């Protein structure tokens, strides 16, 4: 250390007689700079911690109310394609559980593989249509047993959040999921591509519900489409008998009626107070079952693997 200070004193022009004073002066300077550095660092850290304490949580850190998306499905050529399309829409929505419920007696490995590949948190269950409805020659109440199974699951496992019936053949703007997340009881909004009117919607005038616009009213109190409403889980659980009826054409109306008491003033209206369309009843074109593969002709080719992915009724 002595050599170092001597070297510095040479550059400072110090004489041999003032060598000791130079070392003292340099030592004081170093201590002063160190003190200033430490104090500055402490002040900076204190200010930084105060800044963090005043900052709101980042959006990604805020725990949003959960959404429970109930999707009935059944075996058909379009099944995997439609689940894939809906699944990748739901993948953009936070804190969501997808309840995929198939009208079958056993789960389908192809469906399970598709859900795993998409990566949305899910529960895959089965709920076959009762035999008495399968045998009827009239319109069948499709998807009812599936949806009621979803309601049963929520009563057993959920305590908060919102439930929504999202059919796999519809199209959804993801903003509707964020809007429905914060409802208190029941919310409604328009659904496009429904019946001859082209849209099914509550009619709002001066901020109040005055009726419903739909191509088929049919004496229904709530003539709405399945994709046009959501319900609070807490509100549902306060009505233990609420369920969807096995009555074709009246499933939505029957379920909403079963949520009574429900006053029209308690219904919230989303999608810019029903002035926008964020869900569409698109429906996929029906496809004929794929013809059988000639396994002799195409033996040991990729077609043998692809054939196993085709869903046939």
In words, what does this structure look like?
There is one protein chain. By secondary structure, the chain is α/β, with parallel strands linked by helices. Helices cover 37% and strands 17% of the residues. The chain is built from eleven helices and twelve strands. The strands form three sheets. It has a seven-stranded mixed sheet with strand order 3-2-1-4-10-6-11, with helices on both faces. Helix 3 runs parallel beside helix 4 (109-118). The longest helix is centred in the first third of the chain and has 36 residues, at 19-54. The radius of gyration is 33 Å and the shape is extended. The chain starts with a helix and ends in a 6-residue tail after the last helix. The model is unreliable at 1-18 (pLDDT under 50).
Main attributes of the structure:
313 residues, single chain, 12 strands, disordered N terminus, alpha/beta
Number of helices: 11
Shape verdict: extended
Supply the helix-strand structural class: alpha/beta
What is the number of beta strands? Answer: 12
List low-confidence stretches: 1-18
In short:
This protein is an alpha/beta fold.
Q: Mind sketching the topology for me?
A:
Elements: H1 2-12, H2 19-54, E1 67-73, H3 79-90, E2 96-102, H4 109-118, E3 122-126, H5 131-134, H6 144-157, E4 162-165, E5 171-172, H7 175-180, E6 186-188, E7 191-192, E8 199-205, E9 208-213, E10 229-232, H8 233-237, H9 251-257, E11 267-269, H10 270-274, E12 279-280, H11 302-307
Parallel strand pairs: 1-2, 1-4, 2-3, 6-11
Antiparallel strand pairs: 4-10, 5-12, 6-10, 7-8, 8-9
């Amino acid at each position: 250390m002595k050599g170092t200070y001597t070297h510095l004193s040479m550059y400072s022009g110090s004489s041999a007689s003032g060598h000791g004073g130079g070392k003292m002066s340099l030592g004081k300077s170093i201590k002063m700079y160190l003190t200033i550095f430490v104090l500055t660092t402490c002040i900076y850290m204190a200010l930084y911690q105060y800044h963090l304490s005043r900052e709101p949580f980042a959006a990604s850190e805020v725990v949003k109310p959960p959404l429970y998306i109930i999707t009935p499905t059944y075996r058909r050529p379009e099944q995997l394609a439609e689940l894939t399309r809906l699944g990748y829409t739901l993948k953009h929505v936070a804190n969501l559980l997808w309840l995929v419920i198939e009208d079958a007696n056993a789960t389908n490995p192809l469906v399970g593989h598709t859900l795993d590949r998409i990566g949305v948190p899910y529960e895959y269950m089965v709920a076959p249509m009762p035999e008495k409805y399968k045998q009827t020659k009239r319109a069948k109440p499709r998807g009812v047993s599936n949806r009621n199974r979803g309601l049963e699951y929520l009563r057993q496992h959920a305590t908060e959040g919102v439930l929504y019936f999202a059919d796999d053949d519809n199209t959804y703007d993801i903003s509707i999921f964020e809007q429905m997340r914060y409802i208190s009881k029941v919310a409604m909004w328009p659904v496009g591509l429904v019946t001859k009117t082209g849209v099914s919607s509550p009619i709002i005038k001066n901020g109040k519900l005055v009726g419903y616009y739909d191509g088929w009213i049919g004496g229904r109190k709530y003539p709405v489409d399945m994709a046009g409403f959501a319900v609070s889980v807490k509100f549902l659980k306060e009505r233990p008998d609420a369920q969807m009826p096995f009555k074709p054409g009246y499933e939505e109306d029957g379920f909403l009626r079963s949520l009574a008491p429900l006053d029209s003033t308690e219904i919230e209206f989303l999608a810019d107070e029903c002035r926008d369309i964020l869900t569409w009843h698109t429906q996929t074109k029906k496809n004929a079952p794929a013809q059988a593969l000639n396994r002799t002709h195409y033996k040991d080719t990729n077609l043998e693997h692809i054939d196993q992915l085709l869903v046939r009724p």
